[in-house]
Specification:
The complex is a heterodimer of chains A (235) and B (302).
Chain A: H1 5-10, E1 12-15, H2 21-29, E2 36-40, E3 57-61, E4 76-79, E5 95-98, E6 114-117, E7 130-136, E8 150-155, E9 171-174, E10 185-188, H3 192-204, E11 216-220
Parallel strand pairs in A: 1-2, 2-3, 3-4, 4-5, 5-6, 6-7, 7-8, 8-9
Antiparallel strand pairs in A: 9-11, 10-11
Chain B: E1 3-9, H1 12-16, H2 18-29, E2 36-42, E3 51-56, H3 64-75, E4 82-84, E5 87-92, H4 96-106, E6 111-116, E7 119-125, H5 128-134, E8 144-150, E9 165-166, E10 172-179, H6 182-191, H7 201-214, H8 219-229, E11 232-239, E12 244-248, E13 257-260, E14 264-268, H9 272-275, E15 284-286, E16 294-296
Antiparallel strand pairs in B: 1-8, 1-14, 2-7, 2-8, 3-5, 3-6, 4-5, 9-10, 10-11, 11-12, 12-16, 13-14, 13-15
Helix pairs in contact in B: 6-7, 7-8
The chains are: A alpha/beta (235), B alpha+beta (302).
């Protein structure tokens, strides 16, 4: 849920039409500082609110360019617009919410935390995912979850071609159609614990119009990499 | 990396600001392509039976008036040259192909940048912001325009290596990406009579489109053919007399964003180049899907 407007209005503001991205990020990186910040006029600028390392709350009022919220740790960053390439790339923890759609490679290599995209995500969503959870209310483009190793991707609409190509141990859930599966990605049985996992992720993403029981599960056939059951705990 | 911009205006009022708006877009894309820049404007169509050409000369004194006098002798009426930095446009009472043949024989020192009814191409090596200023882009009106900022990866930085590349009468191409089978394809196209000015890979894509359309393909069919015959990465924008078309390769490593309002349709490599347009905050925005041809304009190009 978006913060009520009154709450957002009360936040300290930083206007990117007046200041630079570097100034904004330095402010957000200041030691022992827990800024709650409202960023105005992002205008598609790159690298907005990257490398945060504290429990900040950042509301970005518009569309951003590449790598927004990259490397995020602990912070909650909400984009009231669309994102360019690589939103929340290599996120470590925290929460990133995109109210619009995200371009390619959303959540690439992210290690932890939650990325929620309320619109669609295009190609290579969750590429090389290393432990974060990604919930997309719309659809994802081709080659999503390519070589994804750990974590979860939940897609409430459709997935494009070659979903989960060369997948390791990321768990994929898709509610509607999958254009095609990538090499070594197979459909797997949706057991009660998987329905529960989807239910919990949808609840964290505050999505209440998708029934967890409608999702299908996809995962690695484990024929393409040297899967050893004794290493399961490390994924 | 390169930057691409396309802008199609829906009203004369928006068209009057075309150059100003495209300049803003190119300014935002200058960091994607600091080596060179170029534009194609579609404006002031020549009367029926006439053609418009853009010429480039690297000489300090190109003698544009002498060129105009020669054209007048050969073809009849010719407009006075409209000089813009290193380029000049002429409107001539003759078909574009005849003029092209005459120029290559009589003025081999000049480079034909474009020919057609309404197209004008200007391009130059050097930083995009200097290009915008030197060619006074802000003052140019028109119906639609394409722009390009270049970061060279596979061939040298020169005026001729810059984009847009003409692909036939009133047609041109701008490219973000790189092609890996361009040498072989260039030789194949040369055997089909397609001429090239440079060793640039994007010029081969332009030559490919010229060849396909010469053989009867529509622009859409020619673009679809790219997906079979071109090996590499690309986002293409193709300007036509009526509008422009966009294609991204099926892998779609190269970015593109599109936007539409009541006043204009725009495409750009990045949203920041659209954010500077009036009304961008209320535009319908989307990312063109890989392997799908998008086009604007009244009629498909035959």
């Amino acid at each position: 849920m978006a913060a009520p407007d009154a709450t957002r209005d009360a936040l300290e503001s930083f206007d990117l039409a007046a200041g630079t991205v570097r100034e904004l990020n330095m402010l957000l990186h200041a030691p022992a500082c827990t800024h709650c910040m409202r960023v105005l006029n992002p205008g598609g600028r790159h690298s907005v609110a990257v490398g945060l390392d504290g429990p900040h709350e950042v509301e970005i009022e518009g569309h951003v360019g590449y790598y927004c919220a990259g490397m995020n740790k602990l912070a909650t960053i909400r984009v009231h617009g669309n994102c360019g390439v690589g939103v929340a790339e290599n996120m470590m923890s925290g929460t990133v919410i995109v109210e619009g759609s995200a371009s390619q490679s959303a959540g690439a290599t992210a290690r932890g935390g939650l990325l929620v995209i309320r619109g669609d995500a295009s190609a290579r969503c969750g590429i090389s995912l290393k432990g974060a959870d990604i919930v997309v209310r719309g659809s994802v483009g081709h080659m999503s979850a390519f070589m994804a190793q750990k974590g979860t991707v939940v897609v409430c609409e459709d997935a494009g071609e070659a979903l989960g190509d060369s997948l390791y141990e990321t768990r994929l859930y898709v509610r509607r159609s999958v254009a095609s599966l990538g090499a070594d990605c197979v459909e797997k049985e949706m057991r009660p614990e998987h329905v529960e996992e989807v239910r919990a992720l949808l609840a964290r993403a505050e999505i209440d119009d998708a029934d967890p029981a409608d999702f299908r599960r996809f995962g690695s056939a484990r024929r393409l990499y040297n899967f050893k059951v004794e290493h399961l705990g490390s994924y | 990396m390169c930057g691409i911009a396309g802008l199609y205006t829906k009203s004369p009022a928006a068209g009057a600001e075309l150059g100003e708006l495209l300049s803003r877009m190119l300014g935002q894309l200058s960091f994607r392509g600091p080596d060179s820049a170029g534009v194609a404007f579609y404006r002031d169509p020549a009367p029926d039976g006439w053609c418009k050409i853009s010429l480039y000369s690297g000489a300090a004194d190109p003698g544009w008036d002498r060129v105009a006098a020669g054209l007048a002798l050969a073809f009849g009426e010719v407009s006075p040259p409209r000089v813009r930095a290193t380029h000049a446009t002429f409107v001539i009472e003759a078909g574009g192909e005849r003029v092209e043949a005459w120029l290559s024989e009589r003025h081999p020192e000049l480079r034909l940048m474009s020919a057609g009814s309404s197209i004008e191409i200007y391009k130059e090596a050097g930083p995009p912001r200097s290009f915008i200023e030197r060619f006074a882009l802000e003052e140019i009106g028109g119906s639609h325009a394409l722009g390009h900022t270049r970061m060279a990866t596979e061939s040298r930085v020169s005026t001729q290596h810059s984009h847009p590349f003409s692909t036939g009468l009133d047609l041109c191409l701008v490219h973000n990406g790189s092609l890996s089978n361009h040498n072989r394809l260039r030789r194949l196209l040369q055997r089909q009579g397609i001429r090239f000015q440079t060793d640039n890979d994007s010029e081969v894509a332009a030559g490919y489109l010229t060849w396909r359309m010469r053989e009867g393909a529509t622009l859409e069919q020619a673009l679809e053919g790219c997906m079979d015959d071109l090996d590499g990465f690309y986002t293409f924008a193709v300007g036509t007399a009526d509008g422009f078309a966009v294609l991204r390769d099926p892998i779609a490593c190269k970015p593109a964003v599109m936007a539409e309002t009541d006043a204009w349709v725009a495409m750009a490599s990045e949203y920041r180049a659209i954010a500077v347009l009036p009304g961008a905050e209320d535009a319908v925005l989307w990312e063109p899907e890989p392997g799908r041809v998008y086009s604007w304009g009244t009629a498909p190009v035959a």
